[in-house]
Each structure stands twice: as C-alpha cells, then as structure tokens.
Design brief:
Number of helices: 4
Largest sheet: 3 strands, antiparallel
Shape: flat
Helix content: 55-70%
Structural class: mainly alpha
Order of helices and strands: EEEHHHH
Strand order of the largest sheet: 1-2-3
Strand content: 5-15%
C-alpha cells in the first residue's frame, strides 16, 4: 500500500493506493478534485452516504465563508510556492555555475564501478 499525506496537513491522508488490487482511495475535494472518465472507474461517494440531504443548504452562509477563506489561503499558499520555486531556481543556478561537471562525471563512474564490484561479489 502507498500512503499520500496532505501537503498542508500531515495528519490528513489524501490518497491510499493498493497496486496489487489496482485500487486507489482518495480525497477528491478541492484543490485536488478528480472527475473519473474511464468506464472502469468506480465512485464511492462518501459525502452522499454520510451527510444528510439539505445540510449544505442549511449551512450555506457558513460554508460560503469557509470557502472564501479557504480559497484566499490557497491563493496565498500558491504564491509562496511560486516564490520558493524561483528561489530554488536561483540557488540551483549558483550550484551549476560553481560545479565542475567533469569531476562529477569521474566520481559518478568511480561510484558506479564500486557498486558493480560490490554487486558482483554478493552474487557469488
């Protein structure tokens, strides 16, 4: 089984994948909504099974406020992620400029050779 936690809440699970069963269980609410389009996709909608009809309408004002705050926070979070990506690109550019890739290539070949020797000795 593969477990995927929410990027914003490590105590929340967004998806479970069971490769041998060819099955995934996941949260299809915003911001990661998924609308199945394959014939073999099967939906088990827990919302319709667990929430009483009319609940959304009864709490429409409260839900609207929560949605607005959520959307604003997601927009903020996305802008911070974009800023982090730009900083990461700058840092990588410094490393690339300061790296002698011919030395990196030699070290790579040396490590690969050592690993191959280790694997050969284990297989005997």
């Amino acid at each position: 089984m593969q477990v995927f936690h929410c990027g914003f809440d490590p105590n929340s699970l967004d998806m479970l994948i069971f490769p041998k069963l060819r099955t995934a269980i996941f949260d299809s609410t915003a911001p990661h909504e998924y609308f199945p389009d394959r014939d073999e996709d099967e939906i088990l909608d827990m919302y319709t099974r667990t929430i009483a009809p009319g609940t959304d309408e009864a709490y429409a004002a409260e839900i609207a406020g929560i949605k607005a705050r959520y959307s604003a926070k997601m927009k903020d979070a996305t802008s911070y992620l974009a800023e982090a990506e730009a900083i990461d690109s700058q840092i990588k550019a410094y490393y690339v400029a300061a790296t002698d890739f011919s030395i990196v290539g030699k070290i790579h070949l040396q490590l690969q050779s050592e690993l191959n020797e280790l694997i050969s000795s284990i297989q005997l």
